[in-house]
Amino acid sequence: MQHYLDNSATTRVCPEAAQAALEAMTNIYGNPSSTHTLGREAKKLLDKSRKQAAEALGCAAGELVFTSCGSESDNWAILGGAEAMKRRGKHVISSLVEHDAVRRSLDELESRGFEVTRLRPAADGSIPKEAVMEALREDTVLVTLMLVNNETGGVTDIGAIAKALREAGSAALLHTDAVQGFLKVPFSAKSLGADLISVSGHKIHAPKGVGALYVRNGLRLKPFILGGSQEDGRRAGTEAMPQIAAFGEACRVGRAGMAENIARMRALKEEALARLQREIPELRWVESAAPHILSISLPGWRSEVLMNFLEAREVYVSKSSACKKGGRSHVLEAIGLDARTIDGAIRIGLSRETGPEDIDALCRGLKDARESLRHA
Predict the structure, then answer these.
(1) Model-level pTM?
(2) Helix, strand and coil in the chain, % to nearest 5
(3) Could you tell me which residue, 110 or 325, shows the higher pLDDT?
(4) Beta strands 91-95 and 64-67: pairing type?
(5) What is the mean pLDDT of the chain?
(6) Which residues are designated catalytic?
């Protein structure tokens, strides 16, 4: 039996989303921009899917633009937001623990003459509001911070930061990469108060290849992809209707059961940590508020060895962000963990499909790994 605990890298597509994608590929297959019957049917499906996603995000349908992934949403928000504001200044605030989609966008801004302040995180990978306000300047035009850290599960209080920026009279745009938080921690576009919010489909049981960017009403970004007038002229290219339809359904299903799913994931995370603490005395872990991400380490044993040991028992975890592909975690370095701990770290990612049997298999596997490696 497989025990999949790498849901922070990607989730299995849920049946409702898969069926919606199949329906869009085989029956409602017209181009939403076409004016004939099949085109109008596709446009109706597009509108329905946008409404479903917007309801899950807590925004108006017209504030949501479909993209190909969270990385595209991040790139567009950061590069487009900074360019839109550059007449006011060229200072950007971010952190040392962002996803590479944000980090590389910040590097690009620096090559264009922007100055970027990268804040140090708290011990859980979150960014304190006070640090943001200390870094704020009159020429700050963009603040971009992750809502839920993808490696530690630390939750940054984006709502408090938005409020503080408003009270300070700052004109800076606020963007948050909410890919790991969407439908995993309670929030809405209104409660966050951000101008730009990035989300992704494959983290919420929709297929890969679809995401969305919330763009606050009244804020206009230059299109990131040029061409036709799709997405109200904001993103060119024929809409990827199978993925979009699946995304909409995944949003509907996830929103309907969100409170129950969060409670179940939190209980399983707490159970896993309590049991591992009992059975592996040298265990180290990162305390974090997100219910679905647990970062642990067995110092002295390399992550790859532990992962291979678990995989032999059909238990699947990761060592850090899947996008790193083998590099040492910049996130764990930034929160101050020593090299020995980082080299033994693994990330456990839960989802609404995770059950007690998965946690049991994980704990038994790690206990067996510890005993086997100690006597190797």
Answers:
(1) 0.96
(2) 45, 15, 40
(3) 110
(4) unpaired
(5) 96
(6) 323
